[in-house]
Design brief:
2 copies of one chain form a homodimer. The first copy, chain A, is α/β, with parallel strands linked by helices. The first copy, chain A, contains 8 helices and 17 strands. In chain A, about 25% of the residues lie in helices and about 25% in strands. In chain A, strands 9-15-10-11-12-13-14 form a 7-stranded mixed beta sheet. Chains A and B meet through helix 1, helix 3, helix 6 and helix 8 of A and helix 1, helix 3, helix 6 and helix 8 of B.
Chain lengths: ~350, ~350
């Protein structure tokens, strides 16, 4: 029997990797620091996912159950890896729960940390209760509560979604684009309009990055079917006149200052490197790239490789990623790890 | 010995799938309609690839050699599949070269077709010899010839790259975004500036979609290090004053008409569905999505699935895709196909 593959992090990418391995009869040990499996979509209570339109609790929840009930996957929740030694085919990992794993290979699917909007104070989060994040609006929807102003529970009549909060912002050291917030925000805007047909929803943007087939499914449809309005703008600040939130900025298409009142302002928060990345890099002996994500080899011939042989990486751990690409990368890392734990030519 | 997996199309995604299978001792039959393997990066003579920076002939060429020299991969070039019957675990494929393959599963990595700029006649391609496509500029660079005006071989002093040619354009039935042209164009602009330091390069855009970490590596670096200029504009037409090409349009940031002379105009062409997709869908009995790409199941639990059980899909065949994601998806499809040809629990 071949040694198991150690997978660290039970979000979409790690769950996909574990399933891909178990499906071909390969054992996996899945270690997750949180109490529950599922990663950000489950732990942060996402609503309907892009682009499948499935509810997170169904889609990712189903992936969790599939792995939890698989005899070939040994799950350690509330657990971290404290020590990791050896080489390809013969790694030894010590776990915080006292366990030890002899693994043939390892896959790091340790994900990201949501940007904390308190780091962008001039945009009102933490000062005004009706300035919220996309994650909070997801939770309002997925909980069944509905989209309501936190200050007094009223239905908002005017909502502004501000893109690139914690992304493309050199001032606060987040130079990267978070890739998926434009599309997630267009989706969220349609969900708000669906629940509250009288509510006006505006999206403030720098560029709309609904790449590929997201263009029609999210950007165009949100405008044409759902009448979501898009304003290309640089935002200066979010204040309050005591009654409404006021978004001040410059409309970069007409080169004029604009000041518009809203009931609710939503920060489309970006994806920071996992706050634990330095510790993870230390334990596993893998390199970080300059922004602090886990470094993935750029050679096409070497999918999913980190700087350490036998240790692979997938998903948002190596930079912001979509859920479907995270899942594809999880499968890819599993396929790569498999080549180490199953002697390649023996079974031909 | 388990049945082989049939892979149709030997671009990055198909090559990755074949390698992923062979590496774990699984046989594959790789069928490619062209004379050479490698897909668009090789057949169209791409230069340095995004984001690895490797030359296409080295990076993808290396993937080709790895597969061609692998005893577990049976390659049929200049060949198509003419008939495909059966179900998971027991497909039969007839090939145009007279061969027959008994396959356990199939992976369609049949790629895309470059947009033909003749379908956007008002932008000058086919009328003026110095209006070229990104692919042609890639070929000028990869051949060692250098970037020259086709009309008289001179080094251009001013180059305009027009984004979204055959993308995001309802008028000509291409509503999708081609995902990678913004980044490829920023990369190409830097390559032009590197070869011709005195040449001014302008990029005309609607939105700049250098998502994720491409933001700093391509968009910012092209402006800050390479002085590439970006103009947000709607382009009306490309004409000529007899000496220079004239790009006419409206600068959408200042709301003014702009008319600028150039020596060379480059169309950043998009990715159409493979022209053979209807035939492919017919032979394999799989569905197309509304734009004409191969339809891929949107459920996260079912990576790489087409509408037909046992037939999987990866890469640009299901819509424009980057090379690295195509490769990850190729691996993912291989991992999924493996579960069919290797009885799952037997080897645990």
């Amino acid at each position: 029997m071949s040694k198991p593959v150690l997978i660290v992090g039970a979000g979409p990418s790690g769950l996909a990797a574990a399933h891909a391995l178990a499906r071909v009869g390969q054992r996996a040990v899945l270690v997750e620091k949180a109490e529950r499996l599922g990663g950000a979509p489950i732990l942060s209570g996402y609503a309907k996912l892009v682009p499948s339109g499935e509810w997170a609790r169904d889609a990712i929840g189903g992936m969790v159950r599939r792995v939890e009930t698989d005899a070939l996957v040994e799950v350690h929740a509330r657990t971290t890896v404290t020590r990791f030694e050896g080489g390809p085919g013969e790694f030894t990992a010590e776990l915080s729960d006292g366990g030890t794993v002899q693994a043939g290979a390892a896959i790091l699917t340790t994900g990201f940390t949501h940007f904390d909007s308190l780091n962008k104070p001039e945009w009102g989060f933490g000062t005004f209760p009706d300035v919220v994040t996309t994650t909070q609006v997801e939770q309002m929807i997925s909980s069944g509560q509905g989209v309501r102003c936190p200050s007094d529970g009223r239905k908002p009549q005017r909502v502004a979604i501000l893109l690139c909060v914690g992304s493309r912002d050199r001032q606060i050291g987040r130079e990267w684009c978070s890739k998926i917030c434009c599309t997630v925000s267009a989706n969220l805007a349609m969900e708000i309009r669906e629940e509250l047909p009288d509510c006006h929803v505006y999206i403030y943007y720098m560029d709309i990055r609904t790449f590929g087939l997201y263009e029609t499914k999210y950007y165009w449809r949100s405008q044409e079917e759902f009448k979501v309005k898009y304003i290309k703008a640089r935002i200066a600040e979010v204040t309050s006149d005591g009654e409404k939130l006021i978004v001040k900025g410059e409309d970069t298409l007409v080169k004029r200052p604009i000041t518009i009142p809203f009931d609710m302002v939503v920060h489309a928060i970006g994806m920071d490197p996992n706050v634990d990345n330095k510790a993870i890099a230390g334990v596993f002996g893998v390199a970080l790239e300059p922004h602090g994500f886990l470094a993935r080899g750029s050679s096409y011939a070497a999918t999913a490789e980190t700087s350490r042989p036998g240790v692979f990486v997938a998903g948002a751990a190596c930079g912001r990623e979509t859920i479907d690409d995270s899942i594809a990368q999880g499968h890819a890392a599993a396929a790569t790890a498999l080549a180490i734990v199953r002697p390649a030519r023996a079974s031909a």
